[in-house]
Specification:
This protein is an alpha+beta fold. Helix 3 packs across helix 4 and helix 8 (138-153) runs antiparallel to helix 9 (157-170).
Length: 1218
């Protein structure tokens, strides 16, 4: 056993060297008034000073403990730490010995592993080692109890009964172990289970001997204690505390004692862990309470009476607050339905030091004198005999007289203990005066109380709230502080003296966390709110001038600041006028619970955040439910539960669920989002509870509004979040009703709203005082805002943030074409989907370049939506739009741009990287869902065309979306009738250059995979090559036909070129062989072409339109024709069919991938239909080989004439060759 227990004991001893014991020492859940080591040391101090430690009612420990620690046992820090460690080690050893006795009785072998497990379970039980660290004497009692059971199991009667007597003397409920221990001693075989057996115990005579021996030990110990103390007063203070539990809570201890009696077998192994579990299961409290407070039901009712019926039922008068060391406030028995009446009583013949105020300091010993009288009298029955009356103070009678407590004259008590001095009397001294002066002289001689000049404590008392409440809260938040309630303003607002240190006190205003009571009446006939006075009296009876433990949790939110003050950074947070926290009475627990249970307070839901780390909110809600069911006080007229004056009842149904999970599909602003509710099958727009984001329509806030929106987008978009709808903000003016919710991400404890405010990107709403519709984390939001303000973050930084200027590249087709080459060279470009216009049409933000573009998915066409109120949308258009909105809106995507359409929209592929790192092609995903048609002409040239066609086939087979009513038909192959026609050969091309002199012509790049890849690689290397300064040889003089490097004037970049002719001494006409552009370039911008860049053939090919020609340069419509061709073709990715070849010149039928339908649709035919081109029968003699196209061109010509388009504006003036 020692191999594992020894290191554990060393570790336990090491914990005593940390600050943890000092933190746990005064925790009432670990060390009760009956087991507190602090109180034991106070008793030792009083005993050594010559005082009877049981006079003041402070010490409840056995005289044996006082004597032992006064003489032999250590009470200083390090030796006592060693002692308490050894005590728990002794308990573990006793448990192991009990196990061995049980195994021996059953004739089974001892298992060393079980011994180690038993010892470890005992030493690692938190209900044991936490009180041990607090140096609770409960640890000693546990060890003595286990030792008694151990000796009983080993049949050592004298040792067992002596230890049991010592246990009972220390903690009276130990008597409950008498029967089990006697049975163990009488049992014939040992501590084994013998339920139902009656023949294993000897006659009752043996049992009576053991019982007599036990009571003999008890009488001996009681006699010794009486001799030590000098009187029997210790019986009332120690055993009386157990019988009436005047400072304890009975429920946990009753179940503890019951378990102790009937659980002897379990006690032999892990008894304390089991008992702690039972206590928690029955609603009791763990730790230090569980050893001391065992009592009968009557005792438990007395223990609870401090909360339920007042401390003691007053016969004549009950002492309420103690104003100073010689003045009391007395309260009589209340009349039905009215608070008790009060009067001030000044103790006759004596005067005590005066407590200070905000204008003056305390007199020496003022606090000690007041505390002595307070501990002696508050809450107890007294008899008051008025000698004479004084003028009233605020309608409260004032009297001077004799006060007696339990037959003792308080004047004598105060003089005897030195906490008051006699007044100077001018009358002739009486026998009583002489007696009092003798008592006072004795106190002076023995330096008691105020006469102990060496015991003066120079104490600083702050009577006003701290100047910097935020700093004070940061220092003390969450720490239990011993305190005294000095005043009660109303049911949930107290004036509390915080005992921060022996020489430092701070008076503060405290608002009870989690509840709200009616307002009590004030002066000048202010009656207050209904039940306000009753709630105040309820708290006064139980807390006023009682020692309590206060835990500060938060401060009320400061008033709202304007954006100007936030931005300036000059507005320091105003000091708070009160703190929010809990107030725990050592006997009754949190005062908020009985207040709510009595129907005198309501639960504040928005305090849930500050109470989450300390518990208690669920207990408050349970108490409120009970009060509502009983219709008590505030709930007497309630017809249904209500948590606020504006709380909106949410209709039933899946669309109005108040707690659910959903996917964030849109960020509207810095405080509003939309989520998709799968159960309801629709999106829900939500407002972040108690959050106000920057306004985008305010120029001063617009920059921060964009930052806040972007923060939410990056954090939330596409994520599945947990939504808790806190309340519904009612419709007001032009604003519709809105669900206000708390949003949290999986695995995160901090809400999104708190994170947003902590970065200074939003502020907390300042609600009206009567508006209880708030975020449950409201206090956290306020704290986050204050932290952001102190750190100067975001809105609080004082910096101006301007919106970036976004350039709309798709404003016109010509503007888009200027950017196309750069986009193509860039490959995949990161972007954000800013808007979804249709299933396949988007507005993208290229954040890296501060540009926006219109983007169209290549290879598909989504159903068209209704663009105008009178238009009719195509089937599945709305579904397609919704799919793209949910899947891509505000997501980070990548796009590969291939071409530009005639409106300036860029055509290409959009890729989305999913959370599982797979990449989704948007066009394929839309087609797979049956929400788009494949555009076969453009799709055939795509690298991923097979995926697209497979997706369409799958949608058709499953009859999804647009294919819901699809019926497969046999495809009809159109066969050209003329063998002279070339075989159909669709290629992707881009018009890289348009020439108008000496005649119209253009160049194209064929976009095959290999050629484009090779060109892109070459251009990357070419660009790197020309970053270094390259000089031409002195003799460099290029000739026509030479390949060179030339600088293109449009973008000032270098490209491969060929010299066409020499224009002058220093200028040359060149053609850029990869793009087809013609330009005159000076010799300064021409360099020899390195051999490594000569291998790849020029990628630009000369071409002309098949079947047609543009109007001649002499025509008035020539410029219109050229401009129209440029607008719909230049720089765009088009589909082309090679209809003929004329040397190096290709005759191309150009097809717009977004408009094509039948094989005869082409840009060639479109130009004819617009009257800007004519059929070229001379130059295109092959036209007869394409009868369908010839027929189409004939129809288009007739249409142009009929509609007076282009050159037919004034009639039929066709050229002769048409």
């Amino acid at each position: 056993m020692t191999t594992s227990i020894g290191p554990l004991l060393l570790l336990r001893f090491g914990l005593f060297l940390t600050p943890l014991p000092s933190i746990l020492r005064d925790d009432h859940q670990l060390a009760s008034p009956l087991t507190s080591f602090s109180r034991l040391k106070e008793g030792i101090y009083l005993s050594r000073a010559g005082f009877n430690p049981y006079d003041g009612g402070l010490v409840r420990h056995s005289p044996l403990l006082l004597s032992a620690f006064s003489t032999y046992l250590p009470s200083s820090a390090l030796p006592s730490a060693l002692l308490w460690t050894l005590i728990d080690g002794l308990g573990a050893w006793c448990l192991v010995k009990i196990y061995r006795a049980r195994v021996s009785a059953s004739r089974a072998p001892v298992n060393p592993k079980w011994e180690q497990l038993i010892g470890l379970l005992y030493l690692l039980n938190p209900y044991l080692f936490l009180p041990n660290l607090a140096r609770s004497t409960a640890s000693l009692e546990n060890a003595v109890a286990l030792a008694a059971i151990m000796f009983g199991a080993e049949k050592r009667a004298s040792a067992a009964l002596l230890l049991l007597a010592i246990l009972t003397h220390i903690s009276l409920h130990g008597i409950l172990l008498l029967v089990p221990v006697v049975l163990l001693l009488l049992h014939s075989t040992g501590p084994s289970s013998s339920l139902g057996q009656t023949n294993e115990y000897p006659a009752s005579r043996s049992a009576l001997k053991l019982v007599a021996q036990y009571f003999g030990y008890m009488a001996l110990l009681a006699g010794v204690s009486t001799v030590v103390c000098g009187d029997w007063k210790w019986v009332e203070r120690t055993w009386g505390a157990f019988l009436w539990l005047s400072q304890g809570t009975g429920n946990a201890n009753f179940y503890y004692a019951t378990t102790l009696v009937f659980g002897i077998a379990m006690a032999a192994t892990v008894m304390d862990a089991v008992w702690a579990g039972l206590r928690i299961g029955f609603g009791g409290k763990p730790s230090g309470y569980h050893v001391r407070y065992a009592a009968t039901v009557l005792g438990m009712r007395r223990a609870c009476a401090g909360w339920e019926d007042g401390e003691e039922a007053a016969v004549s008068t009950e002492s309420a607050p103690c104003l100073s060391g010689d003045t009391l406030v007395l309260r009589g028995r209340p009349a039905p339905g009215q608070p008790p009446k009060e009067r001030i009583a000044h103790i006759a013949e004596v005067t005590a030091p005066r407590l200070g105020s905000s204008q003056r300091d305390d007199e020496p010993f003022a606090f000690e004198s007041r505390e002595y009288l307070r501990a002696l009298t508050v809450g107890k029955e007294i008899t008051f005999e008025s000698t004479y009356s004084l003028p009233t103070n605020d309608s409260v009678p004032r009297d001077v007289g004799i006060v007696t407590l339990n037959g003792q004259d308080l004047t004598i008590e105060l003089l005897k203990n030195g906490w008051a001095k006699l007044k100077e009397n001018k009358r002739e001294a009486t026998d009583e005066d002489i007696q009092r002066r003798a008592i006072e002289a004795d106190a002076k001689t023995n330096s008691r109380g105020i006469w102990n000049t060496d015991g003066i404590v120079h104490r600083t008392v702050y009577h006003t709230m701290p100047t910097n409440t935020q700093e004070f809260m940061t220092q003390w938040k969450g720490k239990p502080i011993n305190s005294i309630v000095e005043a009660v303003r109303d049911g949930n607002n107290l004036r509390v003296r915080l005992l921060l240190a022996p020489d430092q006190h701070q008076l503060v205003n405290l608002q009870l966390a989690g509840i709200k009571c009616p307002r009590a009446g004030g002066r000048e006939n202010d009656a207050g709110e209904p039940f306000g006075e009753e709630a105040k009296a309820f708290v006064e009876v139980r807390l006023l001038q009682r020692p309590v433990t206060v835990t500060l949790l938060s401060v009320p939110p400061p008033p709202a600041a304007s954006f100007g003050s936030l931005a300036s950074g000059d507005a320091a947070p105003a000091a708070a006028t009160t703190f929010i926290g809990t107030c725990i009475h050592p006997q009754g627990g949190n005062i908020a619970e009985p207040l709510v249970g009595a129907g005198l307070a309501k639960v504040l839901e928005w305090h849930a955040g500050m109470l989450s780390g300390y518990g208690g909110l669920e207990a408050l809600k349970a108490a409120e439910r009970s009060a509502k069911e009983k219709r008590l006080k505030l709930h007497s007229t309630a017809t249904q539960p209500s948590n606020g004056p504006q709380k909106s009842a949410a209709p039933a149904g899946p669309s109005q669920r108040t707690e659910f999970e959903g996917q964030v599909i849109r960020i509207w602003s810095g405080d509003q989002i939309s989520v998709w509710d799968d159960v309801a099958g629709k999106d829900r727009r939500l407002q972040l509870s108690s959050v106000r984001g920057p306004r985008a329509n305010d120029p001063k806030q617009a920059g921060y509004a964009a930052e806040a929106k972007e923060f939410l987008r990056k954090k939330l978009i596409g994520q599945t979040v947990t939504i808790k709808v806190d309340f519904v903000r009612p419709a007001e003016g032009e604003f519709e009703a809105r669900d206000c919710a708390t949003i949290t991400l999986p695995g995160q404890k901090t809400s999104v709203a708190e994170q947003l405010i902590a970065r200074g990107l939003a502020t907390a709403v300042r609600h009206r005082r009567d508006d209880e519709n708030r975020s449950p984390d409201y206090d956290k939001l306020i704290a986050a805002e204050q932290a952001a303000a102190s750190d100067g973050k975001g809105l609080h930084s004082g910096k101006d943030v301007t919106l970036p200027r976004i350039v709309n590249v798709s404003e016109t087709s010509s503007k888009a074409n200027q950017f196309l080459p750069g986009y193509k060279r860039a490959g995949k470009i990161p972007a954000v989907v800013d808007y979804v216009a249709a299933g396949s049409r988007f507005k993208l933000l290229l954040t890296r370049d501060s540009q926006s573009i219109t983007f169209v998915l290549s290879g598909i066409r989504a159903p068209r939506t209704a663009r105008n109120p009178g238009d009719k949308a195509e089937p599945c258009a709305e579904e397609s739009n919704q799919f793209s909105t949910r899947r891509y809106l505000q997501r980070d995507v990548e796009v590969h741009i291939e071409a530009v359409d005639k409106t300036g929209g860029f055509i290409g592929t959009l890729y989305l990287t999913k959370p599982d790192k797979t990449v989704e092609n948007a066009a394929v995903a839309l087609t797979q869902e049956g929400l788009a048609f494949v555009h076969h002409h453009s799709a055939e040239s795509l690298q991923w065309s097979k995926q697209l066609f497979d997706a369409e086939a799958s949608a058709k087979a499953a009859k999804r979306g647009v294919w819901k009513h699809y019926v497969e038909e046999a495809e009809v192959e159109v066969v050209e009738q003329d063998a002279g026609a070339l075989k159909t050969q669709y290629i992707d091309v881009i018009i890289s250059d348009v020439r108008t002199a000496p005649q119209f012509g253009f160049s194209v790049q064929v976009l095959n995979n290999e050629g484009i890849a090779n060109l892109e690689k070459l251009m990357r290397e070419f660009s790197l090559h020309h970053r270094a300064a390259i000089k031409s040889p002195p003799s460099f003089s290029p000739k026509p036909g030479d390949l060179v490097s030339a600088r293109f004037s449009a973008d000032n970049s270098w490209y491969r070129a060929k010299i066409r002719k020499v224009v002058g001494k220093t200028e040359y006409d060149v053609v850029f062989i990869d793009y087809g552009n013609l330009e005159t370039v000076s010799l300064n911008n021409i360099r020899p072409l390195d051999d490594k860049f000569r291998a790849l053939p020029g990628q630009a090919q000369d071409a002309r339109l098949s079947f047609v020609k543009l109007l001649d340069v002499s025509s008035d419509y020539f410029d219109d024709a050229i401009d129209r061709f440029r607008s719909i073709c230049e720089g765009r990715k088009l589909i082309a069919n090679i209809d003929a070849r004329e040397g190096p010149v290709l005759h191309l039928r150009l097809i717009d991938p977004s408009d094509a339908g039948s094989p005869t649709d082409s840009i060639n035919a479109q130009l004819v239909r617009e009257g800007l081109a004519v059929v070229d029968r001379k130059g295109c003699k092959y036209i007869s080989s394409y009868p369908q196209i010839a027929k189409r061109l004939q129809d288009d010509t007739a249409e142009a004439k009929r509609s007076r388009s282009g050159m037919y504006e004034f009639g039929d003036i066709s050229p002769e060759d048409d």
